Amino acid sequence: MKQKKVHIMTFGCQMNVSDSEKILLMLHTVGYESVSTVADADMVIVNTCSVRAKAEDRVYGILLTMKGELKKNPDLLIGVGGCVAQQEGEKLLKKIPHLSFVFGTHNLHLLPQIVTQAESGKRLSETAFIDDSSRFDLFPDHGGISGITRTVTIMQGCDNYCSYCIVPYVRGREVSRKRSDILNEVAKAADAGVREVTLLGQNVNSYGRKGGYGTDFSRLIRDVAKVSGIKRIRFMTSHPKDMSDPLLDCFADVEKLCSHIHLPVQSGSDRILALMNRGYTRSEYMNRIERLKLIRPDILVTSDIIVGFPGETEDDFSQSLSLMKEVGYSDTYSFVYSPRPETKAASLPDETSKSEKSERLKRLMALQSSLTKGVQSRFVGSGVEVLVEGISKKEGQVFGRSSGNRTVNFAGSIDMIGSMQLPEIIKNLQNSLLGELKVK
Ligand code: SF4
After folding, report:
1. Of the candidates 104, 236, 87, 85, which has an alpha carbon nearest to the alpha carbon of residue 165?
2. With a 6 A CB cut-off, is 202 part of the ligand 1 pocket?
3. What is this structure's pTM?
4. Domain 259-275+287-378 carries which CATH code?
5. What are phi and psi of 200, to 5 degrees?
6. Is any ligand 1 atom within 6 A of the Cβ of residue 343?
7. What is the b/e burial string over 51-83, where b = at least 16 CB atoms within 10 angstroms of the residue's CB?
8. Would you state the CATH architecture of domain 132-258?
């Protein structure tokens, strides 16, 4: 089979990164290998995100620039997958005449057939949902893809219908994957040299709620911890309302579970949380955080916060700021609200100006920057255990992450990759830490 080349562009969340790995596995079966530039490619796949309007606009911008690439290579195939593809389907083919094919979030396994038809000149769109766990059985395993860390999908979709969120419409309803399949994948990954797994899903801590498989998320974590060779376990993204006591207990006695949790709060105001349909109050959220900190005093917490949700007043916003300080987040991922099609919040009255929202975002980011600085400074002068993941950009250094998910660089060599090291932190570089291995 002639070796053909594909360039995959990935936007959005970790789930899309994981999907791009699956896309590449599927394309291997029809003779494609990955290249890092469009100029070298026979086909470009744009794996899209539609969680925010800005991300969606960017995708359209990129697809338009592909016109220029087609002038250089008229045989170039252009495919679009991910959430924008799911949302728009056939309409994308009409809007972008130079597009070859569209595939939805549940149709990655069809890529070999889709691409074969596109190669013979057919333009097509496949966006049907698969609403049961059979959607997890459609991919070859990770085979040759190696590394020290890996994400393992344990569930997909979401039933929560937060009023601002497009995910239930573009990723479908919540479905959990079979426990035995997850454990097999983790064991194979460990055999291939993976030392850290991140259990992945839109709402990981509701794992097992639908489909059952006689387990829940806390028991799954305990099972994964028994896989030999795995040194660390992380998970994302979790929902505050599903932070059960058994899950909190895992932080007490599962040593492999890292001291970090990404627990999106979205707002510090009860009024806005209710409008968002988040299913918890500020005090319920803080109760979970306080318990986590009691159980794991060194835990670092990160979050997502939406700024300028429809109807958010200055008082509501100041409650988000005060909550950030109360938790002491190590990082937050914040954006100005943008209405998404089909969602409830898109029809809510919104009187706050764009400039006011941008100004709030700036204030929030300034606060986070000082919180991050404070969190990172705590480590200076002490030893931090790091799983070494690779060679740093800076010559002579390696990088890895602490249990709390802070990036650490320090002088080291390639043979350290995959090992645990204990550098002393000598400098806080704001987005990372600089360490030094002390000579024994
Ligand atoms: S929990 Fe809410 S924000 Fe998260 S994916 Fe589901 S609907 Fe979207």
Report:
1. 87
2. yes
3. 0.92
4. 3.30.750.200
5. -120, 140
6. no
7. bbeebbeebeebbeebeebeeeeeebbbbbbbb
8. 2-Layer Sandwich (3.30)
Classify burial at 342, counting beta carbons within 10 Å of its beta carbon; exposed 0-12, middle 13-18, buried 19 or more.
exposed
CB 7 within 8 A of CB 36: yes
3-state secondary structure of 387: strand
pLDDT digits (tens, 9 = 90+) for 296-343: 999 999 999 999 999 999 999 999 999 999 999 999 999 999 999 999
Q: Which of 167, 169, 173 to mutate to test the pocket of ligand 1 (most atoms within 8 A of CB)?
A: 167
Can you tell me which residue has the tokens 């064991």? 187
Q: Are strands 101-103 and 124-126 parallel, antiparallel or unpaired?
A: parallel
Look at residue 281 and tell me whether its pLDDT is greater than 50.
yes
User: Can you tell me the distance from the alpha carbon of 27 to that of 139, in angstroms, rounded to the nearest whole number?
Assistant: 11
pLDDT 10s digits, 179-204: 999 999 999 999 999 999 999 999 99
8 Å CB contact between 196 and 148: yes
The pick from 203, 237, 285 for probing ligand 1's pocket by mutation, whose C-beta has the most ligand atoms within 8 angstroms, reads 203
Distance, in Å, from the CA atom of 66 to the CA atom of 322, rounded to the nearest integer, reads 45
Name the residue of 162, 164, 278, 306 whose CB sits within 8 Å of the most ligand 1 atoms, as the mutation to test its pocket.
162
Q: What is the 3-state secondary structure (H, E, C) of 38-103?
A: HHHCCEEEEEECCCCHHHHHHHHHHHHHHHHHHHHCCCCEEEEEHHHHHHHCHHHHHHCCCCCEEE
At 397, list the tokens: 């250094």
Amino acid residing at 10: T
List, for residues 105-146, the tens digit of each pLDDT value.
Answer: 999 999 999 999 999 999 999 999 987 778 787 776 655 456
Please enumerate in sequence order all residues whose Cβ is within 8 A of that of 241, keeping only pairs 6 or more positions apart, or say none: 278, 279, 280, 284
pLDDT of amino acid 144: 46
Pick the CATH number of 4-126 from 3.40.50.12160, 1.10.3470.10, 3.40.50.720, 3.30.300.20: 3.40.50.12160
167 CB under 6 A from ligand 1? Answer: yes
Pocket lining: 231 vs ligand 1, CB cutoff 6 Å: no
Q: Residue 379 above 50 pLDDT?
A: yes
* CA gap 70, 278 in Å, rounded: 45
Instruction: For residue 277, give the ligand 1 atom closest to its CA.
Output: 2
User: Is the minimum distance from the CB of 392 to ligand 1 under 6 angstroms?
Assistant: no
